[in-house]
Amino acid sequence: MFALAGMIFVTSFHTAKGTNLRTDDSLLKLSDLIEQRGHENAELDRSTSALREDVEALARRDDGSTAAEDARLRALEVAAGTEKLSGRAVSVTLHDAPANAQAAPGYPEPQANDLVIHQQDLQAVVNALWQGGAQGVQVMDQRLISTSAVRCVGNTLILQGRVYSPPYQVTAVGDPDRLQAALTASPAIQNYQLYVKAYGLGWKVDERETVTLPGYSGTVDLHYAKPAQ
Length: 229
What we know:
Blueprint: H1 2-16, H2 25-62, H3 67-80, E1 85-95, H4 119-131, E2 136-139, E3 142-143, E4 151-153, E5 156-159, E6 162-164, E7 168-173, H5 176-185, H6 187-199, E8 202-213
Helix pairs in contact: 4-5
C-alpha cells in the first residue's frame, strides 16, 4: 500500500509540475486571452475601416471611371454587403434558458446542452432569413457577407475574429412578411421551438419599420477557397 501511495504521489508530481491540478486558472486565463484578443480585433477593425474609406475616397477621385461604371460599382458593393443598407427589417433574439430552468410538464429533465444556444440554432435563423429574401443580414453588430462563418465555441459566438455572449440578435432587411414566413417554415427552427417550449430557451421576433445595417468593413481576402476555373 505504501508503494502504491508513493507511485500515486510521484505520478501526481510529474503531471502537475508544481501547479494545482484542481484549479480553473488555466481556463480563466484562456477566457481572458480570448476576450482580450476580441477587443484588439475590434480596434483593428475600426482602424482598417477608416483606412479603407480613405483609400476608396482617393480611388474614386482618381479612377477616371464614367458615371455608369460608378453606378454599377455601387450596385455591386450593395450586393456584396460592403455598403450600408436601410429598410424594413425583422430582428430575431435568441437567449440561453434561465439558470434555474426546469422542464415543462411532460418533458424529460434538461441536460446542460438543452439549455444553451448552439451554432446550428444561429445558423438556422441566418439561413431562414436568406431563404426569405433578406437583402442583408447582421449578426450582433456585424454585417454578414458571402465569406462570413457563424461559429460557436462553448456558449460564446466567434464571428469574424470577435467574441460575443448571449443574447444573440440577428437582424435582416427585407419584406417582413416573407422573412417571418421563412422563419416559421424552417424545420430547424421548428425543432428549436420545441426546446423553447420545454426548457425556456429565449426566442423573440420583432418587426422593425426602418433599420440601417452597416457595411462590412473587414478583409475580403480568401485564405482557403479558390476561384472556379
